[in-house]
């Protein structure tokens, strides 16, 4: 069971708009070794913004 957590760790995605909104997801370290950046919906400002991985 520990093997799956090593390959797919849980990461927090924080909004770049400064609202403090976060998403929690898993990522594959082999495919995405760098920090993850996804464009997702921020409900506080009601628009899509970039969410960057926080460690």
Automatic annotation (TrEMBL):
GO CC annotations, alphabetized: ribosome
InterPro entries, alphabetized: Ribosomal_bL33, Ribosomal_bL33_CS, Ribosomal_bL33_sf, Ribosomal_zn-bd
Pfam families: Ribosomal_L33 (PF00471)
Keyword Ribosomal protein belongs to the record: yes
The UniProt record lists the keyword Ribonucleoprotein: yes
Record keywords: Ribonucleoprotein, Ribosomal protein
Recorded family membership: Belongs to the bacterial ribosomal protein bL33 family.
Designated name of the protein: Large ribosomal subunit protein bL33
Organism: Pseudonocardia kongjuensis
């Amino acid at each position: 069971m520990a093997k799956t957590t090593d390959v797919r760790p849980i990461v927090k995605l924080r909004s770049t708009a400064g609202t403090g909104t976060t998403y929690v997801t898993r990522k594959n370290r082999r495919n995405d070794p760098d920090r993850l950046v996804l464009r997702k919906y921020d409900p506080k400002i009601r628009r899509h913004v970039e969410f960057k991985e926080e460690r």
